[in-house]
Write a structure and sequence with these properties.
mainly alpha, zinc ion binding
Length: about 550
Amino acid sequence: DLFDNTLIPEIKSWADRAERSADVASAVYYLVLAIGSQSEDQQMATTYFLRGKHLALSALGGNLSVGTVQSFLLTTLYMLRSCQINGAYLFFGIAARAAYAIGLHRTEVNSRFGPAIHIRRDRLWKSVRVLDLYLSQSMGRPPAAADPDCTVSYHAPLADGSGGEEYDLLNASVQIFTLIEGIIWEVYSRRKISLHLTEGISRQLREWSAKWLPALLRAQTQTDEADRSGACQVLASYYYGVMLISRPFLMYELCKRLPDSSRAGMGMRTGTGTGTETSSASSSSGRAKLANACIDAATLLIGLISEYTSTGTSDRRMPVIVSWLFASSLVVGVGLLGGFGRSLEKSARLSEAALEHFAQHDAHAAQYARIAASLRVCAISYLERRDAEERSRIAEDSTQLFGLLPRQQQQQQQQQQQQQQQQQQSQSQSHSHSHSPSSEVGERRNAAGTTADRLPSFEQMRRQTESGGRGPWEDHAAGPFGDFDPAIFSFGSETTPQTEFPPLQGDAGHYNSAADQVFGAMNLFPLLDGNGHIDLAHLL
């Protein structure tokens, strides 16, 4: 999307020259060759990159042009693919300032250069926005290219007036990244969320899904690897957006499910439950279903990328996919730890395998794979220990009835249980002195298990969409949150229910005032007040 179809002929003509000029065009060509060589010959790629970066920096003293923006965007991409994220963020700042300097963000300026160049400059600005939003969201840093003064449209309506939109991966990508930006601003920056606010954001996700999901699913069957790769990255970003809006509710449910001893060791508030009881009221609550929706989105994302990597893709340097895949591996790991279903272990292993696939050329993916594996092992160990303790309590009851165990062994087990209880009580008391109990967390309820064991495979979901049949979630009743259903995020449904809730629009002040007036808003960032906070900042 940085270039049109004249790029390859131009590079061939440039390569055939006896002498190549040291200008910004040469810098662009060197950087294109560098990125293309990264997966084949790293030494050659480094040589091209150093030459192209030197020419790009040298050209900054002259007149800025589209080539200046392209050269520094390519520098950013190369460094991202090489796991040099801080350098990438630095060079992208130059690209963003150069784009503003030549007016790429104003479509009326772009239109002065004729129809062809107008389209090219508009698309270049969209590429700037996508890369900017990815960097800011993945690194937790402020964006460098904001939208308030932008007049470039991110939509391309069909000429027939049907309300549809032309299939364009760039437009789909910038739209979903803009939605994710809104989620971060409305939820994570304010550190407050409610079911009412979540419904407003989910409506925008449903609208995006209705426009783009069927076409993106069909694109996964294409033989063109570039189309498949682009569609896969856009779909992964959509699933990541769903995880992002529902992840606070997952953390809330996890906090309620953990027993007192485990939560005390993690610095969480303690309650009265054991972490094993089940409550039908909790299973029907909106918070519990949103927690399950977060796990479902992570499972779908893992299935999507696992299917993509199984086809033997040649490119193993994909920062967007690696970032969102790691986020999904953490979600399924936490879901496994919280008892949302042992079937999540399969998804956890698939995410590790996919990360290891990219780890051959991506140091970050290798580190993420180790973290995901460690979380899975810890979760399984905890579940096995919890099950063993439960069986031990049951065996004690059976012994009291029939004397199944010798009296001496029974006394030893009782002493061990008493010691464990005393340790748990001492930990609970030490935390209760420094933390005041919370009414929200004090209610020990075990929400319903995840729907991961009944999720359709990615291939089944795509076939249902192509055949025009009903999606896997369309049989559920629609409702704002009284009878909440995961279909609110339209994971695999082409026709989704629309609720009458206004989308989030307007400036930051409007967002803030609207969120403050939401009835029943809860401070879930962290969940508790005082020093017993669950700090979610590291999960942003």
